[in-house]
TrEMBL record:
Leader peptide range in chain numbering: none
Gene3D superfamilies on file: Ribosomal protein L9, C-terminal domain, Ribosomal protein L9, N-terminal domain
Protein name (Swiss-Prot/TrEMBL): Large ribosomal subunit protein bL9
Keywords: Ribonucleoprotein, Ribosomal protein, RNA-binding, rRNA-binding
Length: 148
């Protein structure tokens, strides 16, 4: 079965890639969860548009990703959030909040979908997150969550 991936699937491919998978895997896992759509000639145009959008927001190359990694790993990045007494947050720190703070620190726009959180961040203080900048480059970033 040919599937066009609509988002990145670990070990299979990225958004816009056309992959050949077993029928059961496609029918029972990828399609119901919205990870892909069936391949047709009409859907191929949609896949090309997805790939073009992905390349527009992607980091240019591995050397550029390494430069951004050096900027991010150099110093802890401060994320300002609303917090009550005792350091409890109103909700959790979102990947969009983290992406905005990382973008300011790096001087580049960081896509929120590249940020990997182990657990939701619900307290003030220091936390670690991983940012997948390129296929071969990941940055381990120290966050310092502070009240606004």
């Amino acid at each position: 079965m040919k599937i066009i991936l609509t988002q990145e699937v670990e070990g299979l491919g990225g958004a816009g890639d056309v992959v050949e998978v077993k029928d059961g895997y496609g029918r029972n896992y990828l399609l119901p969860r919205g990870f892909g759509i069936r391949w047709t000639r009409g859907a191929q145009a949609q896949a090309d548009a997805i790939k073009q959008a992905r390349s527009a927001r992607a980091v240019r190359d591995e050397a550029h990703a390494s430069e951004i990694k050096a900027k991010l790993e150099g110093n802890p990045v401060a994320v300002k959030v609303k917090a009550g007494q005792g350091g409890r947050l109103f909700g959790a720190v979102t990947t969009a909040d983290i992406a905005a703070a990382l973008g300011e620190a790096a001087g580049e726009s960081i896509d929120k979908r590249t940020i990997v959180l182990g657990n939701p961040i619900k307290t003030l203080g220091s936390h670690n997150v991983s940012v997948k900048l390129h296929d071969d480059v990941s940055a381990a970033v120290a966050l310092n969550v502070i009240p606004a």
